[in-house]
Amino acid sequence: MNLHSFIHSQSRLLLVTSFMAGVLFPAEGADDAVAIGSRRELFVDRLLVGELKNTLLKLHEPQLMPPVQQPRPHGHYATVLRTPDKFQFYYRGDKDPKVTWKTQGIEAYHDGEVTLYAESMDGIHWTLPKLGLHEHPAFPEGNIILMNEFMVNHNFTPFIDTRPGVPAEQKYKALGGLAYQSHQQAVREKRGPGGLKAFVSPDGIHWKKLRDEPVIPEAWGKYFDSQNYAFWSEAEQLYVCYFRRFIGGLRGIARTTSQDFIHWTPFVEMKANLPGEHLYTACTQPYFRAPHLYMALPTRFMEKRGAATDILFMSTRGGETYDRLFTQSLIRPGLSKEGWANRANYAAIGIHQTGDTELSMFLTNGRRYTLRLDGFASVNAPLDGGEFITRPLTFDGNELTINYATSAAGQMQVEIQDALGKPVPGFSLDACDPIYGDHIGRVVTWKKESDVGRLKGTVIKLRFVMSDADLFAVKFQDTAGSSNTAPKDGG
């Protein structure tokens, strides 16, 4: 079965089964209860999905915004970081764009690459600071942060290390580098081994090597010619790196972990590709509002269609598998012919909040796309109504909050059930105050009361009865720091 036939069959299966009288996902027993604690859970995978009745799981379409200013060109592999007071943008530049590996060879090409830097207060309006670190006439702004690091500048990818106790001089870390191809043995002998090299910095601007030797060997990569991103995982309590690797002749993704950023575990090849599918950049990163969920914006590479590229959406909670709940594109090439050019669509690392209710994703050529907070996917109900029942779960906290949206005609009600599916007294559907409007964090109430603390630690299910509505996320929280009063409807 080829890729297009597989996608078509999977899309039909999802559509047909979602509209059956009831779609039952595995693990319905109390023994399989999901302990969500007080984590925010998004509907980007099947973890909480129990039963769908005339409802479906829907991937939402990001909205294209006006180009950022100044436009942020980059050589495909860009990274956007956020500190409490600014955004930091890292992207590739070439001393002479006319020098390519095909015309002048691999040495001249990679020697001509530099890593450039921009800053912003809002993620939209960018400045190029004159840093005075490396000078080159091709970059009169003086915003070069790394130069003369052979092959490293091709895909230099930094992150802010949030590991507790990390030394101040290593607050930022980065990986960069390539593996030599078989015909480049002479260059290897001259320039040293390939692989991913580690760098550290106190501020994201002044960088030094953590050590001279690669920390991830070139034999793993074949060829690391992509964006290879590492981060400290709060959920797993270790460093995680997702990197490019050829798997069965296809561009794919592998994963490795580390306790010290120097010694890495043997890699595992991620189960991500559909049949015949090439996945370029992994772009896998913790979601800032739910860091136990890693969101991925990989590039689907259509080799026989002029190397056109789509941006996909996947998620993972660690381990060897991505959740491919949605096979369609998140962001298509678009109407412009430029979007259909060779490798014209790459997402930068970095999904960040850029407004009270908005998150942004940054793409090639200064494009910025937005979604509502948590708005990647939802449980969706039509106007004639439907139901969604979670798998059995346990929680911490004394309030249930939801991220949702309805039409002016739609609404939603929530029932808390016991492990056997019976309404818990005081939390029946009839007792739930009708919910309509559009909120990022609405507190659910039953007869104007929100306290669910007496159910903490017990196995429950959540039943949502919905019409013309989307449910994006759920979270149990403690009252401290929040209000018991539900938001006014319609706001």
Summarize the SSE layout with pairings.
Elements: H1 3-18, E1 23-24, E2 34-37, E3 41-42, E4 49-53, E5 56-59, E6 63-65, E7 79-82, E8 87-94, H2 106-111, E9 113-120, E10 126-127, E11 144-147, E12 157-160, E13 172-176, H3 185-191, E14 195-201, E15 208-209, E16 216-217, H4 218-221, E17 229-233, E18 238-247, E19 250-258, E20 268-269, E21 278-279, E22 284-287, E23 290-296, E24 299-302, E25 308-311, E26 314-316, E27 347-355, E28 358-363, E29 368-372, E30 377-381, E31 386-390, E32 393-395, E33 399-418, E34 438-443, E35 460-477
Parallel strand pairs: 2-32
Antiparallel strand pairs: 1-4, 3-35, 4-31, 5-30, 6-29, 7-8, 8-9, 9-10, 9-11, 12-13, 13-14, 14-15, 14-16, 17-18, 18-19, 19-20, 21-24, 22-23, 23-26, 24-25, 27-28, 28-29, 30-35, 31-35, 33-34, 33-35
